[in-house]
Specification:
Elements lengths: L3 H23 L2 H28 L8 H23 L3 H23 L10 H33 L10 H20 L6 H6 L1 H39 L1
Helix pairs in contact: 1-2, 1-3, 2-3, 3-4, 4-5, 4-6, 4-8, 5-6, 5-8
Length: 239
């Protein structure tokens, strides 16, 4: 049965298709790629609900607010890539807060339901602080990725898929990432806790894998950025 959240999600998916077509019309590669990624992420929960039971025999169902939140965040970012980031000064702050809120809600649920059979204290304060720090970790990873993407685009004179406007922009992005996380923790938003509770072992594995990926990714991005920047200077001077 299709409820109101599913209908609203469908409307936003349709709007995302519109941003995709507009990006194609403008020949804006970054807008097209971002719209495609947002569409893929938005329909992924529905695809998993159909594929996983038939292929693996596992019962899986997501809260209908998950795909809605994904497509809202993706739509806002796609509009930004079409010009709102430059035209509206607060648009980037809004999209970062919404996206960080989504990430924080998922991480909050994972931290809440992770089995507590370990010596680490797991009181409410620990859960909140851990969630905020994990969101900050995601934010730093993303900002490093944006910096590297911008450096690559500038070196090869192509349009960057990820846009960064300098150190102040990075600082503000991280601030609004933290704002989104703090709002989720302060509101004790347990939107995805029921889903995580039904898949506790998988949730714990995904949480640990995510932290490992982020830490390893940060080290890798930092090394690549350092090597790239050290190697690009002499190359540019010779060119």
């Amino acid at each position: 049965m299709t409820g109101p959240l599913e209908l609203v999600t469908g409307l936003f998916l349709t709007a995302l298709v519109g941003t995709l077509l507009e990006g194609v019309r403008r020949r804006n590669v970054s807008a097209v790629v971002n719209a495609l990624v947002a569409l893929g992420a938005g329909v992924l929960p529905f695809v998993l609900e159909l594929v996983v039971p038939s292929v693996f025999g596992w019962t899986i169902s997501f809260d209908p607010s998950l795909p809605l939140w994904i497509v809202i965040a993706g739509f806002g970012h796609s509009l930004g890539m079409l010009g709102l980031y430059e035209a509206v000064w607060w648009w980037d702050h809004l999209t970062h807060t919404i996206s960080a809120g989504l990430v924080a809600t998922a991480l909050y649920a994972a931290v809440v339901v992770t089995p507590h059979s370990n010596p680490i204290p797991v009181g409410p304060a620990w859960v909140g602080v851990t969630t905020v720090w994990l969101v900050l970790l995601v934010g730093v990873f993303w900002e490093l990725l944006e910096s590297l993407a911008r450096a690559v685009a500038e070196r090869y004179s192509v349009e960057p898929l990820l846009v960064q406007y300098g150190p102040l922009d990075t600082t503000l992005d991280l601030f609004f990432d933290l704002l989104g996380a703090v709002v989720v923790v302060a509101a004790d938003l347990r939107l995805f806790v029921p889903f995580a509770s039904r898949h506790e072992q998988a949730t714990e594995w995904v949480l640990h894998a995510t932290v490992t990926f982020l830490l390893g990714g940060l080290v890798l991005l930092a090394v690549v950025a350092r090597v790239w920047l050290d190697g690009s200077g002499p190359h540019d001077e010779q060119g």
